[in-house]
């Protein structure tokens, strides 16, 4: 994998991500990034026993202590790699277990992860994954991701890193489901935080559903980066 950093730089990329970096030491990966002047943006938390069919353990009841150890390992990598985001895999629903019970466990684990990672200035990401690639995966639809964010959001304090991006993701889910009023409210709050961060407070705020505005949340595969842009009239 280490030779891919050189290839990424040669192709003009300034940042990279990696699903599972744990076959290499964090220091080794950090040196590879530094040599090529690349930013290591994000990676997945440890997925559990993939040979046994696991792809994330955050939805598995009775594995909470192991989940916290996995997040601890991921945070050590994030600190060394100066990564700002960790993708927490939802996991596969076990045979005989209800999806709702798994989702309850998932939400509680995410609340803990959001607080723990936030204290380290690292954001937690989630992503729906299609059932073709991951049969039985817990979250497969944007609406499910929206509901997950809605349930985790109360545990995410406004001063935690990435709070605006979380609001943006929530706004995107609401807008996609036709809930334009709540989407606009969440989007405006997210936009205000984004503009404050980038110093563009003079930019006009968009209206969801308006014909002269492109308003949405762009989450390329993993990152919940917020991009809200008003078109000139």
Task: Explain what this protein looks like in three dimensions.
The chain is of the alpha/beta class. It contains seven helices and six strands; from the N terminus they run αβαβαβαβαααββ. The chain has helices spanning 3-10, 26-36, 64-81, 99-119, 142-152, 163-176, 180-198; strands at residues 15-18, 39-44, 85-87, 123-125, 213-217, 226-230. Strands 1-2-3-4 form a four-stranded parallel beta sheet. Helix 4 links the parallel strand 3 and strand 4 (123-125). Helix 5 (142-152) packs across helix 6 (163-176) and helix 6 runs antiparallel to helix 7. The protein is globular and about 45 Å long. The protein starts with a helix and ends with a strand. The model is unreliable at 197-233 (pLDDT under 50).
Descriptive keywords:
single chain; 233 residues; alpha/beta; 44% helix; globular; disordered C terminus
| Largest sheet features | 4 strands, parallel
- Proportion of helical residues: 40-55%
Strand content: 5-15%
Shape: globular
Structural class: alpha/beta
Q: What is the CA–CA distance across the termini?
A: 48 Å
> What is the count of DSSP helices, taking H or I runs of 4+ residues?
7
Our Rg estimate from Cα atoms comes to 18 Å
Strand numbers in spatial order across the main sheet: 1-2-3-4
Count of individual beta strands: 6
> What's the overall average pLDDT, rounded?
78
Low-confidence stretches: 197-233
Order of helices and strands: HEHEHEHEHHHEE
